[in-house]
Amino acid sequence: LYARSRRVARTALTLQRSLLSEPPDPDHLSFAVRYVPAAREAQVGGDWYDVFQQPDGATVLVIGDVVGHDTEAAACMGQLRGLLRGITYDSDDSPAGVLRRLDRAMAGLELKTMASVLVARLEQTDEEVERGVTRLRWANAGHLPPVVAGPDGEIEVYDGARADLLLGVEPTAQRQDHVRTIPRGSTVLLYTD
Asked: What secondary structure, in 3-state letters, does the chain show?
């Protein structure tokens, strides 16, 4: 029984890790990702990240955490990650609009789970490229705030705006975007608990 449960846990961990894909490698950005479970017995859970580019050239950053630390949370994470990726890629919505659509899809598809999710876009106009700045536009559904380390080493936690309601609680919940301009050479950190 112990050997069987270990095989199931290893299989779930393998499936979860397969969803946590490598980020893209655009010329103007560098990414690093790290997934470390909080405890040995909680190797599988609902935490996830994603990084991908949209057709308009913007880069999307996602960090999320489905409630729970088991294979059910990992399965829900896989569903939410896929839904969020598809909705985001195929829309011109802002991060807040994407979270609204994801919340409605969760209710309509009867995904009985809750999750904290932060969706961010790194956006630049030609003029911003020349000035060496990038806009960080994000919406936060109950997640931890982004942290930005400037090129001068100054660290700022973007916690001035209160996070919106978790996903899966109220599908008509209001979502809001936040925008900050960050200089070239900055590091954006998204993380889970």
From this structure: CHHHHHHHHHHHHHHHHHHCCCCCCCCCCCCCCCCCCCCHHHCCCCEEEEEEECCCCCEEEEEEEECCCCHHHHHHHHHHHHHHHHHHHCCCCCHHHHHHHHHHHHHHCCCCCCEEEEEEEEECCHHHHHHCEEEEEEEEECCCCCEEECCCCCEEECCCCCCECCECCCCCCCCCCEEEEEECCCEEECCCC
Q: Which tens digits make up the pLDDT trace of 97-126?
A: 999 999 999 999 999 999 999 999 999 999
pLDDT (tens digit per residue) in 56-104: 989 999 999 998 877 788 888 889 999 999 999 999 999 999 999 999 9
Torsion on CA atoms 76, 20, 52, 191, rounded to nearest 10: 80
Using CA atoms, how far apart are residues 191 and 114, in angstroms rounded to an integer?
Answer: 18
What distances in angstroms separate CA 138 from CA 64, 78, 144, one per listed residue? Answer: 13, 22, 12
Cα separation, 3 vs 17, in Å, equals 21
